[in-house]
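Hi R.,

Here are the chain sequences for the assembly we discussed:
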Amino acid sequence: MLSLFPETAAVEDGELVVGGLRASALAEEHGTPLVVYCEQTLLDAARAYRQAAPNALALYSLKAFPSVAILRLLAAEGFGADVSTLGELEFALRAGIPGERIVVHGNNKSGEELRAAAEADARFVVLDALDEVGQAAAAGVERALVRVTPGIEADTHQAIRTAHHGSKFGLPPDQALEAVQAARTAGIDIPGVHLHIGSQLLGLDAGLETIDWLGGFATRCRKELGWEPTVVDLGGGLGIRYVEGERAPTVAEFVAALLTRLEATWPGRPPELILEPGRSLVGRAGLTLYRVGVVKRASDAVTYVAIDGGMSDNPRPQLYGARYEALLANRADSEAIASYDVCGKHCESGDVLIEGARLPETRRGDLLAVPATGAYTLSMGSNYNAVPRPAAVLVRDGMARVIRRRETVDDLLRHEASS
Amino acid sequence: MLSLFPETAAVEDGELVVGGLRASALAEEHGTPLVVYCEQTLLDAARAYRQAAPNALALYSLKAFPSVAILRLLAAEGFGADVSTLGELEFALRAGIPGERIVVHGNNKSGEELRAAAEADARFVVLDALDEVGQAAAAGVERALVRVTPGIEADTHQAIRTAHHGSKFGLPPDQALEAVQAARTAGIDIPGVHLHIGSQLLGLDAGLETIDWLGGFATRCRKELGWEPTVVDLGGGLGIRYVEGERAPTVAEFVAALLTRLEATWPGRPPELILEPGRSLVGRAGLTLYRVGVVKRASDAVTYVAIDGGMSDNPRPQLYGARYEALLANRADSEAIASYDVCGKHCESGDVLIEGARLPETRRGDLLAVPATGAYTLSMGSNYNAVPRPAAVLVRDGMARVIRRRETVDDLLRHEASS
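And here is the predicted structure of the full complex:
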């Protein structure tokens, strides 16, 4: 189980310790629910990308967890940002990411977003539709990639498959060529293409198949347009382990496989590469601490352990049927002897975070730690039931720093009409 | 299609008008996405409840859409509030709802929430677990109901079924009796029980079956405990129509059926009734206006119409597979000749609001109106992709009033660490 947690996780005196800090001390000082990020795990993942592809432009896909503090840490490692809205662009700029390390995505960018991308002098805007070419030119965009959909079905949840034909993203090959041509005619520099394989990939096949396809597409570009892509943005996609028994490629394995295949199949000198990891940077670095409240035998088959958060801080179980495991942080060396359904505090039966979690006998006041919650949790969180969203802290060498303040009920009421 | 919209909806000069205001004027003044609530529709639904059950305590289940302005309107009609967290309680108090018209729910109330309920002198706290009895007594709670799960399977999405055995809510009958006894021993006044049938019910059967069951349970209470419930809180549950062809009971039909059956099956003088509607008050009253951006042919089978919102303002399609329809608000009398998938602007393939929406030929700049979005949309909305949540306005007689301010990117950045 500990292998699902950040690298610095250990059990000391029966208690979970991360970044040199006891779970109970973190919970006491910062309250629960609390998302705890381990700086070491984050930096190690970032460095693994830089080491595996030193010449690639590495961008943090900040939708996984938009955080100015984490962007700054990654920027210091040479990372830029992949953004897809005005808000995400603002997070990147606030973190001091220079425009040349920002790529702007989005299947439906507003005029305001395109103008902001041009003003920020973003490295590339990624054109996602034929009629966006004119919009981008009018907004002052000078450099762009075209997003193409190769029509490959990645083995992942259908909501996060993105490269199949019929996706709302990108353009089928014929239209992509048309967009390249139109953009060049409109005076936009188009050095290459973007394509994205999927998300939470636990194997290499879809990535390799994409690269194979890309080689053929590049040849077609040369023959039909007399144009050769010299930049290839492969997006992100590398998955992480959420539960024991699951396997995922390492960053080194994933990137090396793509690079090797690209070298083998690309017609000519290999293109400049852009990578956009999100989940594989922050996913394992984060864990969530919850305080246990009600423990209830609901039927012969089900006993609930209720936590002080739920679908408002982590809606992945509701959105994707995502599975998690949990560790009793304050009795981390007790034997797991019972099976519990871990539910949240929201007014909804479906607000169940984990079905059948193996835990020691669990009581009110216990502290539950759920690993691998660093990506697509808080970033997709809500205020359902007027529940404020949790704080996030970054831990390292026995020190914790708040990187995202806990919301208050007053924050929620701030948007109400005053009279 | 217009019958899915608020009562004041009409088409004038080819354009959708609500509350006497043109959709285009609303979009221009308040921006898009915009959630528009029709005051008349809301008040008519509220009055239908009051008329159908004049002696019942009617509570707005504010999780459907927490809004101080809407709570005030409903309070003027005699409504109170059903709340389930500290935040929801604060919304109710801010709207001036007196404690005697507040019932406090929750499957995992914190000590702070129980103390706040006691301080607000809430009409009832609804006890949801055996070990909550001691917690409630310690927090100073003086009056409570016990939530019992009759074990009835309502015909609705499994995430919002709540009355089956094995639900995280309430107590199976044996444990409920035990909780009644324990609470009385602890000095808490227990005048009755709460039970909840489900959500988005489109028929009467589950409700009637629950009432039948309740009569037997009341008899069992008298025989085993010498205690008779004199208050019955039936929760909410009445559904609304989301798409054409769907049928839902009217408020009058739904409430009359429950009352008649309660009179027929209750052993003795019928109890005081509490009703907790949410969706059936605000669901149809609300519609969402979106601006169309990209229109893209993604495959032979699918053409996308992309809107400037999506799963951040309405995650019901992703959470429940919810279906919607749409009207082209600026050409509302044009014939629907094409089928489009209406997708949002979020970085996720699953961000599709409507599959196969029938619309006239749709172009960039068009205004799309989606009916029946007043409940469980904004209240479950997120800031995914750092997208600020929309504003909500209340319309009546040609006047619009902002009841929820549009979020800004600065609002999202406010929680970031400053250094």
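Residues 52 and 252 of chain B are 6 Å apart (CA to CA). The radius of gyration of chain B is 23 Å.

Let me know if anything looks off.

Best,
T.
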